[in-house]
Batch of 2 targets.
Target 1
Amino acid sequence: MTNSFSYYIILVLVLFFGCKNDPSSDPDKFVPVLPQDTLTRMVVALENLRLREAPGTDQATVAELKQDTELETTGAISPLKTSVMIRGVQREEPWIEVKTSDGTKGWVFGGGVKIEGAQNTPVASVLRKERLANFFGAEKPRQILQYRTDFNSVENPRDLENVFIRGTILRDSLVQTMREKIEITDHEKLPDLSWIEDAMPGFTLGMVAEGTGFYLFQDYGKMKAWAKETTAKEDDAFFEFISFTNSGQRIESFYPVWFEQTWDYGGISLLGEGHHLSTLKHMEKLMAEQELFRNPILKLKMRLLKDILNPFTPDYGYSAEKIIKEIDEILSSDFKVLSVVEKKKLEERKKQFLDPAKFGLKLNLKATNS
């Protein structure tokens, strides 16, 4: 073998192994550097997150980062995606180049970090969109991010009405996906879902069904503060009304002021205590004074009527005497918000409370539970 041929073989081997160890030679790990106005701040969301030399689980570990370690991004993000089950949630995300407080650089799996606050830097925006698409599917991120943009651009009550209605409808579809895709395996180590809350301003994450699932609750405290920033008062009046029907609580409750929860999945109607009548008075006033928020007001009216006419469980807290008295007060008020048909149904229902056993109604349960 000649010296020149031996040199050629050695050169080929060096180039081959050199390219194999260089992540930039792999098209899947090509790393674009995003434009940076400011560095994105992140914190580690797992007990031990590996900081690696390059994108990918097959790359050498530089360090193991403890939970809550603060990081800054460099602006580089890899299109290489890795799929990992983390605390009951399948996370498929890209790799991000970061640096620690002592200046150590490396790459971390995107699903192992949490963006601090509602940042809109390039890296934060890319990661937000990736997370939403991988979890909720290809179409939902467009709707979610449009809602987020519109929420943060509200200037008047009409804008607020629009995003409130759209946000409520969107929330219902997202919660269904969350129910299907999240499996809580350890209540001491819950999954990080702050990125969902970040994408849905005006909502707060909470646990439901005895701690077996997550739900996006409307945050009326945020919404009332939000309404005060607009140029008119219609939205302030609406959220004061919503706050009243929510028993004055800041966070949305599954059960309105006219219903008392007595067990994990239900309770008793408080018909006879006056809350149905008071709610209808509020509705009547709002509907007479403004055109905005009519759809959510009417939707709430249907919930109230269902509680009287056709509840999920026919359980009532008070006596027939008190219940009939409140229904009579509702009918004598001649509310315009109630149709002729609805008033007729209330008249018929009132008669049923005179013979509750015949119609399967259970009364006086509040006294029984006391």
Target 2
Amino acid sequence: MTRDAHDEDRREAREEWEPSPDGAEQPQEEPKHPGWLTLAQVFKTADPFFEKILFLLAYDYSSNIYVIKGDYLTIVDPGNDYTGFMDLFRLGYKPEDIKKIVLTHGHRDHCMGAFELLRAYPALVESGGFELILHPESPGELKEVVRKFGSQVTEVQGGETLELSGQQWEVLYTPGHTVDGLSFYHAPSKTAFTGDLALPHAMAEIDHNAGGRLDHYLFGIKVLLQKDIAHLLPGHGVPVASLGNRVVEQTYESLMLKIIGVEKEIPWIEGAQALVTKGLLEEAVFCCDRELARQADNLRAIQLKAYCLTDMGRCEESLILLDQVLARDHANIHALTAKGHALLGLGRYLESVPFFDQALALNPEFQEPQIYKGMALYLGGKVDEAMDIEIFQKEFAHRVKQQFANKPGAQAPTRPDQA
């Protein structure tokens, strides 16, 4: 993440722990760090699940550190803060209690604590060390050093289920910030460790040197969007209770701003159109939904969403929207063509033809419904009628013949009425 965003998270986090009364002077010294807390304390709940997870807020050049308690300790991101472990062991835990360390990615601020544990606490090494769990693309030097100290390295790629201190966590491959990004999801509690991929109040920078890519970031966020995340445990900033899905959606929106190339609040319908031109149909549908949440009767948004759904193969959903449009604007030539196209996509070939005819009655020169009508007739077995449509012959029949002509030994396609 950027240094500015990191500092902002630190400032907001301190305010969360020690809010100042209205009108009070700001202290000259930095507020005291809250130290190790259970997530139950952070979330102000008595839930036993959150009682079993300890949290140390990131500061300076470290990430947040999480510790899952059970028959042994699991650390999620050991950070880069040796004093944090000194404080942890003062609470009564021992270095040799640590049996697993899980990394969300291999940035120094998230992983260097693993070295510190092995170098500073001989009892941990003598007990057999820990199992380091990370992605295959994580830094090789990290794996090499850990192995030299006698610890085990386990590589996961996503899709696995990990037992961490008695809890079952699903591994999610969420690249983008880096190539080795992982998130971990606990379905029963709807809780996710997201590293730097999804952060409250900030978006992580894409680290190209670590294999980060914008298109991969979009993929990673869409993986998180498929999960019901109520509670989000980020690599920086204060953990988020109940509103985890919203944080993921905000990151998704920020990514779309980058893709569209604007820096202000996204203009939803214009954003949807820009995303369509880039072939990002799911993102365009997301923008249309945001516009419709603001203005439910926006025909432009309904119509654009329907087009996207058809192209995504979700034709039944598209038909419902197109019927809404045509109920209010029965002479909408584009909606008529789109409804025929959706029916065509469902294999209802001859049923689609009347809608193309209605569109052509409004504009006989409109080529799109002519092409689709020819396709519908051809696939519906009315080959001669299809071939009477000149543009269909040129755009489709010629291409089919050319395709077969380029393949040695290929035979011309059989006409439906001769099959």
